[in-house]
Amino acid sequence: MKEPKQLSVSAIENGTVIDHIPASSLFKVIQILGLDKISNQITFGTNLESKKLGRKAIIKLAGVYFEDDDINRIALVAPEAKLNIIKGYEVVEKSVVEVPDEITGIAKCVNPQCITNFESVTTRFRVVSKKNVSLKCHYCEKITDQEHMVIL
Ligand code: CTP
Ligand code: ZN
């Protein structure tokens, strides 16, 4: 017998649902958004079926709403993530994440001589291309492209 269609993770009354996260990026997203440090109710689902991503993850945050700048920090690890703002159990707003103009932390500079790679200096980049993400280091000006990008 076929299982009935139902939500794998319960609906929330108010808050934010981050959907279409590649399953392999779930813990990065949690880390980038600092979700381990908040006391709101959070539910996760991972390795859920997705036509687009193969295996996707979803995060539901009760009573949490993000600023664009904060949420866009996940764009490097979850470029296809979709945000849903929930109020009174209804989806009242949908948006997609967008690669920001500047990135602080998150990625490693490709240049082994860069100060960020031998002193405890947080990486900082200007985004020179958003499509095939490429990052220009604030300190050494070397370009880190998508292919060489290592997420911290
Ligand atoms: N959702 C939720 N709580 C609600 C309403 C919606 O957790 N009260 C979740 C749904 O489970 C879904 C996401 O929010 O993961 C978006 O909801 P909806 O737009 O209804 O789903 P879809 O049309 O499938 O979304 P998509 O735009 O991703 O196709
Ligand atoms: Zn550098």
Describe this structure in words.
The protein is mostly beta strands. The protein has two domains: 15-96, Aspartate carbamoyltransferase regulatory subunit, N-terminal domain (Alpha-Beta Plaits, 2-Layer Sandwich), CATH 3.30.70.140; 102-151, Aspartate carbamoyltransferase regulatory subunit, C-terminal domain (SH3 type barrels), CATH 2.30.30.20. The protein is 8% helix and 36% strand. The strands form two sheets. A five-stranded antiparallel beta sheet has the order 2-3-1-4-5, with no helix packed on it. β4 and β5 (90-96) form a beta hairpin. The longest helix is centred in the N-terminal third of the chain and has 8 residues, at 26-33. It is elongated. The N and C termini lie far apart (45 Å). The site of zinc ion (ZN) has 8 residues, from loops.
Q: What is the molecular shape?
A: elongated
**Overall strand count:** 9
Uncertain stretches? none
Class derived from helix and strand content: mainly beta
Strand order of the largest sheet: 2-3-1-4-5
Cα-atom radius of gyration: 17 Å
The portion of residues forming beta strands comes to: 35-45%
Question: What are the distinct ligands in this entry?
Answer: cytidine-5'-triphosphate, zinc ion
- Look at the structure and name the CATH superfamily of the largest domain: Aspartate carbamoyltransferase regulatory subunit, N-terminal domain
How many separate helices? 2
- Main sheet record: 5 strands, antiparallel
Tell me roughly what share of residues is in helical segments. Answer: under 10%
> Span between N and C termini?
45 Å
Give the number of domains: 2
